[in-house]
Amino acid sequence: MKMNQVCALALSVFVASHVMAAGDNQDKALAEKAAKELANPNTAYASLNLKLQYNGGYENRGNNFTTVFQPTLPFLLDGGDKIIFRPAVSYVDNDFPFNDDSGVSDISFDLAYAPKTQPGTIAAFGVIASLPTGSDNFSSEQFAIGQSFLSARSARNVYLGHFRTIWLGFQARELISHELTKHQRNFFG
Questions:
Q1: What is the pLDDT of residues 27-68, one digit of tens each?
Q2: Is 83:115 a contact under the CB 8 Å cutoff?
Q3: Contact at 8 Å (CB) between 92 and 66?
Q4: How much is the pLDDT for 185?
Q5: Separation of CA 125 from chain center
């Protein structure tokens, strides 16, 4: 009887360890799939990207630290196509002998359509824009809008590709002044 209990216990430990190992393999496969999807710029997963960029070694020992928060918000369409919205907000901290300013820069965003493609290939095209919302000395003080195009292929878990944008900018003050003048002419005859 004692031998049966020992054999049952040994068999239970053996089966449990193999079930756990199989679970670990499934978890690893799921983690690898998620990592591969997050490496894809056209991911179906929402993500909250925080980029920290340090630039140093300027003349007179100046440096710059920029923090960029850029979430990726994908919207899945029927058939596997996606619409992707990526706003970006940046905070800049300059430390130069002649400029020690810090502040928020203009908000930019891109809105792209990403059609379903063959495995290992990605493509997207859309609109990219910038709004003059930055702090003093960190705003371009102009609206900008343009087109964007992305194409890439996967090679050994790395995406190699091309991201092309073309911007057209116009001064915020000129646009507001032009619109007011146009409305005044319409209103006053």
A1: 788 877 777 666 666 666 778 889 999 888 777 778 888 999
A2: no
A3: yes
A4: 43
A5: 15
CB 66 within 8 A of CB 46: no
Output phi, psi for 183, to 5 deg. Answer: -70, -35
For the chain, the first-to-last Cα distance in angstroms comes to 107
Question: Under 8 Å CB-to-CB from 154, ≥6 apart: which residues?
Answer: 40, 120, 121, 122
Q: Could you tell me how many residues make up the chain? A: 189
Give 115-162 as a DSSP string: ---STTEEEEEEEEEEE--PPTTT---EEEEEEEEEEEEEETTEEEEE
Give the tens place of pLDDT for each residue, 146-175. 999 988 888 776 778 888 888 887 775 555
> How far is 121 from 124, CA to CA, in rounded Å?
11
Global confidence as pTM: 0.65
Integer Cα distance of 138 and 150 in angstroms: 28
Taking a C-beta distance cutoff of 8 angstroms, is the pair 93, 137 a contact?
A: no
Residue spans of beta strands (DSSP E) within the chain: 47-55, 63-76, 82-95, 102-104, 107-114, 121-131, 142-155, 158-171
